[in-house]
DNA sequence: AAATTATATATCATAAAGATATATATCAAG
DNA sequence: CTTGATATATATCTTTATGATATATAATTT
């Protein structure tokens, strides 16, 4: 995985949403962006350091009683500019989304049909649960950020999640039928 | 990315489809599985070595005139068993599919609506092209492997690609409309 | 009172992506 | 007919990402 480095831009973006610590960014990612992105601490902390070095954000150490200092990050002018530049940069590659279910299905002639049907049913359940989660996030956004200019765009991404997941569920049903 | 190692199973699977060299596997992946998986030489060759060490495949060196030897791999009984075991193992995680378009959209209040619309239009074009590619692959499968037991499953995965891509295109249209 | 969860930063090992190196044969274009 | 591009084939390198774990304490739950 050479070259990409979307992490940097993800973090610059998160800095515009009120997140000020690495921990908050991870939380935000896992609650509100988890339908299309993820990030690990192993990326967050080194990238934050790098971002400060590049002058795209500033840090302030806030000592805590006993606990490790909170490092509060704030986006600079340069950081905002960098974010905007990335936003308007053209989409290059669009890599395929790897899908373990399809990888297994591709080789499924090597197992009984029943087993294949079973795991498609299981997959469908997972997707259904995911759909519910998305509805939960939707409420969260609508409650917490009615005033935010972000809300419209956040809801667009959720819409994507909902529509695509619904399509996946339909495909599951189709395929189970064809196998039965 | 600790833990997963789907690469090993992808390769075991490819060995059941007539692929005998690393090069052929890469080709197969890039033509017939590229709508849901990808693999690099940096994964293929070390994994092939490992698979042989584990007794899941055998190698035979076929000397070429001047060119590097062809290493022909064949699945063993143990390899087939390992593949079947993986096929029937439960789906655990199902990681999110990371989507750069959505990441940008999430932060798009920081740019003019026109720019956002532009890249959604561009994305839609990419998806449309992808849909055509899938139809091409479909033909390829139908021509080359009418007799193969694999064909049915391969077409299921393509169906997935087609249905999900169609849903994505619809979402693009929707979202462009909402922004206009 | 004990156990778990939340807050907070940081690093490590493993896996994957993408690029590049090496070498030659074949095919197409000028 | 020769130059350039593409196809065949293996292999390795660096960068990036993932998931796990380490550390330390407060707050909350059992």
From TrEMBL, chains A, B:
PANTHER family in the cross-refs: NEGATIVE TRANSCRIPTION REGULATOR PADR (PTHR43252:SF6), TRANSCRIPTIONAL REGULATOR YQJI (PTHR43252)
Protein name per UniProt: PadR family transcriptional regulator
Organism domain of life: Bacteria
PROSITE patterns, per the entry: PROKAR_LIPOPROTEIN
Listed InterPro entries: Tscrpt_reg_PadR_C, Tscrpt_reg_PadR_N, WH-like_DNA-bd_sf, WH_DNA-bd_sf
Residue ranges of every copy of the Transcription regulator PadR C-terminal domain listed in the record: 98-179
Pfam families assigned: PadR (PF03551), Vir_act_alpha_C (PF10400)
Taxonomic source organism: Ornithinibacillus massiliensis
Transcription regulator PadR N-terminal domain: residues covered: 11-84
Gene3D superfamilies (alphabetical): 6.10.140.190, Winged helix-like DNA-binding domain superfamily/Winged helix DNA-binding domain
């Amino acid at each position: 995985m050479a070259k990409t480095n979307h992490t940097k831009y993800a973090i610059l973006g998160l800095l515009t949403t009120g997140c000020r610590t690495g921990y908050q960014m991870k939380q935000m990612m896992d609650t509100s962006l988890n339908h299309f992105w993820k990030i690990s601490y192993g990326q967050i902390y080194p990238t934050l350091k790098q971002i400060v070095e590049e002058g795209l954000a500033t840090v302030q150490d806030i000592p805590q009683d006993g606990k490790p200092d909170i490092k509060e990050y704030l986006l600079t002018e340069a950081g905002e500019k960098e974010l905007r530049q990335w936003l308007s940069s053209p989409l290059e590659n669009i890599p395929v989304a790897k899908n373990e279910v399809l990888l297994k299905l591709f080789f499924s002639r090597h197992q009984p049909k029943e087993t294949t049907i079973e795991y498609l049913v299981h997959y469908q359940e997972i997707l259904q649960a995911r759909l519910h989660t998305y509805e939960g996030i939707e409420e969260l956004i609508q409650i917490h950020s009615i005033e935010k200019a972000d809300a419209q765009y956040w809801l667009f991404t959720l819409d994507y999640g909902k529509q695509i997941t619904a399509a996946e569920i339909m495909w599951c049903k189709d395929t189970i039928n064809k196998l039965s």
